[in-house]
From TrEMBL:
Alphabetical keyword list: Annexin, Calcium, Calcium/phospholipid-binding, Cytoplasm, Repeat
Region of interest (Disordered), ranges: 1-49
Functional note: May associate with CD21. May regulate the release of Ca(2+) from intracellular stores.
Highest rank taxon of the organism: Eukaryota
Alphabetized PROSITE patterns for the sequence: ANNEXIN_1 (PS00223), ANNEXIN_2 (PS51897)
SMART domains: ANX
Nucleus recorded as keyword: no
SUPFAM superfamilies: Annexin
The protein's name: Annexin
Species this chain originates from: Equus asinus
One GO molecular-function entry: calcium-dependent phospholipid binding
């Protein structure tokens, strides 16, 4: 009996390379690299006149941890808040994308969960995807970020928006 690949006439070619789903950690990001990458033409802001493509390349070619290092290095180099400067220099969807990428992962998760339990209905897939795929440490960071960002208790919001066995499962995942 022929296998699925043979039935469909597909070649059994297994010469593909596995790549991680997220940006791999590179070595420590030196502050000089941040300064060189972020420095634009002189203006009121160190980002003044910055090239959107350069910003996009810098931000998307780094892991979340490295982006947090960039924020700290920028503060040390310029004495300014990078996210505030990005909001000032960028607009629209591009601004939302870049600012979103600059948030710590726990705050991104907190926003997604807040959106999932807000309004009419619940985005159950979102709750499952986030809560079932995070480590205990990441869940604790998420709970703290949710409390910090929204001044609300994550578990109480989840309980208020779900019911039954699904609710019990989510509460267990939040422990």
């Amino acid at each position: 009996m022929k296998g699925f690949d043979q039935q469909k006439g597909l070649k059994n070619n297994r010469s593909f390379t596995r790549t991680p789903a997220t940006q791999a950690e590179k070595q420590h990001l030196p502050p000089q690299m941040v300064e060189t990458s972020l420095a634009g033409p002189p203006a009121a802001s160190p980002l003044g006149g910055s090239d959107k493509e350069a910003i996009l390349e810098l931000i998307t070619s780094r892991s979340n941890r490295q982006r947090q290092e960039i924020i700290q290095s920028y503060k040390s180099l310029y004495g300014k808040d990078l996210i505030a400067d990005l909001k000032y220099e960028l607009t629209g969807k591009f601004e939302r994308l870049i600012v979103g990428l600059m948030r710590p992962l726990a705050y991104c998760d907190a926003k997604e969960i807040k959106d999932a339990v807000s309004g009419i209905g619940t985005d159950e897939k979102c709750l499952i995807e986030i809560l079932a795929s995070r480590t205990n440490e990441q869940i604790h960071q998420l709970v703290a970020a949710y409390k910090d960002a929204y001044e609300r208790d994550l578990e109480a919001d989840v309980i208020g928006d779900t019911s039954g066995h699904f609710q019990k499962m989510l509460v267990v995942l939040l422990q």
